[in-house]
Specification:
The chain has 5 helices and 3 strands; from the N terminus they run ααβααββα. The protein has helices spanning about 1-30, 35-75, 85-95, 100-120, 155-160, and strands at about 85, 125-130, 135-140. Helix 1 (about 1-30) packs across helix 2 (about 35-75), helix 2 crosses helix 4 and helix 3 crosses helix 4 (about 100-120).
């Protein structure tokens, strides 16, 4: 038991000494080179920002492709039947995130506009407006005789 206490005490002393050395060296460098330290800090923050932004873009592109595929599946399920755009969106949102309001909001605000942009350029889908309950609603209708595959829905990211 005494040997274990001694080992733990020595390990604690070692960790404390290393932390003290690192912090005192960092403070000395900050004091001696304030401009260089500030530029280094800003550089690290900028690189961190770029990495975070790149990860967010990759997540957005992946989620957009997933939602686009689901939207195609929904409108191809019943071809020649008009599908209200908001209903398609809500079905996908609640299917992907049934309990997370934050994720639902992210999908509606960031992902869905990219999906709509893609569909606006797809001639296999008829886009129209219909009056429902006294309000104009956008509707999509699959009019092509062939169904799409996931490989044909990937070109929207290249066109943007």
């Amino acid at each position: 038991a005494n040997a274990l206490k001694w080992v733990l005490r020595k390990m604690g002393d070692l960790v404390w000494n290393v932390c003290y050395y690192v912090s005192s060296t960092a403070f000395s460098l900050l004091s001696a080179y304030p401009l260089g330290s500030m530029l280094g800090f800003l550089f690290v923050c900028f690189i961190s920002y770029l990495r975070k932004r790149r990860a967010q873009r990759a997540k957005l592109q992946l989620l957009t492709a997933n939602v686009r595929t689901k939207a195609y599946a929904i409108i191809q399920e019943k071809p020649n039947t008009p599908h209200v755009l908001l209903h398609v969106r809500d079905e996908i949102v609640y299917d992907l995130y049934p309990d997370s309001a934050k994720d639902q909001e992210y999908l509606i605000r960031n992902v869905w506009p990219a999906v709509v942009k893609h569909f606006k350029h797809d001639n296999r889908v008829r886009k129209a407006q219909k009056i429902m309950d006294g309000k104009p609603r956008d509707v999509w209708q699959w009019v092509s005789s062939t169904k799409t595959s996931t490989s044909t829905t990937r070109f929207a990211d290249d066109a943007e």
